[in-house]
Specification:
Pfam families: Polysacc_deac_1 (PF01522). This protein has about 425 residues and is α/β, with parallel strands linked by helices. It has one domain: Alpha-Beta Barrel (TIM Barrel). Helix content is about 30%, strand content about 10%. Strands 1, 2, 3, 4, 7, 8 and 9 form a seven-stranded mixed beta sheet that branches. α9 packs across α10 (about 290-300) and α11 (about 330-345) runs parallel beside α12 (about 365-380). The longest helix has 19 residues, at about 255-275. It binds zinc ion (ZN).
């Protein structure tokens, strides 16, 4: 069975109670689900296309406000003062003011009349945004088999039908590479108790640091950053590459254009306020993206990053604190990862590397992330998904230059940048 599209977030004792199951595909009709599974093996892409001249030009977002620099946050990579950049120990629980932001974990109401959103709506070239219908779960049955809008939820499509938007980044091009990604952070619990806090950040970040200073992509939710800004700053200072994961974690194709813009805007704004950067990468919750959403994201300065392997850690039926609503056991999730490793060891996985979906979401997912990491590091060249795709500068702020796998750094549109980035 395919997982449900809604549920109650594990461990949500307080203000972050929310109706989402983190990532994984949305519910869909069984026939289409089966077709999707068949597609899964043949839909993997080669390296991203590199003819950026055919892509719609992008510009650094002008509609984001300026913010004062935060104390103890790095301003470049590598950092000018590495020791100061790597604080450890308990994190501050200080929170940012919600002033200027919408309700946490909720799609922005009246987005079309929001004075922050109106200028962006005017700046976007809507002739370049396909008029794909706003979807709902019921719409799935009616969606044409020809997949006119490259709707990942239905077909796992990652190459837009429109030529001026690049394909989603969905794999690591080089075989034997593991693109490490953690979604839905920063991870924290409310209320803060000893038991809850045990698995909250900086638990995973400390673990990564102790294990060969492993770097990852962290796909942060805007609403979560507000609740745990110090955790976000710690992840960023550690050298992880931050990408946006929307404001409230909705299925993006179910939203109106103005709501989509608001989800992007408020997540980017929160990231800029707390970290001082503007990511050029985002990941759709549940993978729910089509060409309408891609075109809006691209014009707001971001390329879509998806995955080709899902650990299903988000769907575990319980955690260290309480039973949860998930559908699979720890053993099942472990088996999935074991099978990938076996396939690689047996020489059956030589076509390309993979971008793997994991989460910093609950004590279950943190437990699994830490349990798997040493084995993954042993079997694969492990790095952020942006690094295996040679994206050295993942933000509009160019002074952040991260190590990459290859020798030629490229932009998020796949074009060589001329920047000399260190090799992993
Ligand atoms: Zn997510």
């Amino acid at each position: 069975m395919m997982p449900s599209g809604s549920g109650i977030w594990l461990g949500s004792g307080g203000i972050i109670t929310s109706k989402w199951v983190p990532d994984g595909p949305r519910a869909k009709p069984i026939a289409i689900a089966l077709a999707t599974l068949l597609f899964a093996t043949i839909n993997v892409q080669a390296a991203p296309a590199t003819k950026s001249s055919t892509y719609l030009p992008q510009a650094s977002p002008k509609w984001l406000p300026s913010f004062p620099k935060q104390k103890n946050v790095i301003t470049s990579w590598p950092p000018s003062n590495p020791k100061a950049a790597l604080p450890s120990g308990p994190l501050s629980t200080a929170s940012f003011s919600l002033e200027g932001y919408p309700t946490m974990n909720e799609v922005v109401t009246n987005a079309a009349k929001d004075p922050n959103i109106i200028p962006i709506m005017k700046a976007i070239d809507w002739t370049k945004v396909p008029s794909a219908p706003v979807t709902s779960d019921a719409y799935g049955d009616e969606y044409p088999a020809s997949d006119p809008y490259c709707w990942w939820t239905q077909t796992l499509c990652t190459t837009p039908k429109i030529h001026y938007i690049p394909p989603d980044i969905s794999i690591c091009p080089k075989a034997g590479t593991w693109g490490l990604t953690y979604d839905d952070g920063p991870m924290y619990y409310w209320p803060v108790t000893a038991e809850n806090s045990k698995w909250a950040e900086p638990n995973l970040y400390d673990y990564l640091l102790k294990h060969n200073d492993q770097k990852a992509n962290l796909f942060y939710i805007g609403s979560k950053i507000i609740g745990a800004p110090a955790a976000a700053q710690r992840g960023f200072n550690d050298g992880h590459t931050i990408c946006a994961h929307t404001w409230s974690h909705p299925s993006m194709t179910t939203l109106t254009n103005a709501e989509v813009v608001a989800e992007f805007y408020y997540s980017l704004r929160m990231i800029k306020q707390v970290l001082g950067i503007t990511p050029k990468c985002w990941r759709p919750p549940y993978g729910d993206v089509d060409d309408r959403i891609r075109a809006i994201a691209w014009q707001m300065g971001m390329r879509t990053i998806i995955w080709d392997r899902d650990t299903n850690d988000w769907n575990i039926n319980g955690d260290q604190v309480a039973p949860g609503p998930g559908a699979i056991t720890y053993a099942t999730a472990n088996k999935t990862v074991d099978n990938w490793i076996k396939s690689r060891e047996e020489g059956k996985d030589n076509k390309n590397g993979h971008i793997v979906l994991e989460h910093e979401l609950s004590n279950s997912t943190i437990t699994l992330a830490e349990f798997w990491l040493p084995t993954i590091q042993k079997e694969y060249q492990t790095m952020p998904a942006t690094a295996c795709n040679n994206i050295a500068q993942p933000y509009w702020e160019k002074q952040f230059i991260y190590p990459i796998q290859g020798t030629v750094a490229v932009d998020t549109n796949g074009e060589p940048t001329g920047v000399k980035a260190p090799q992993i």
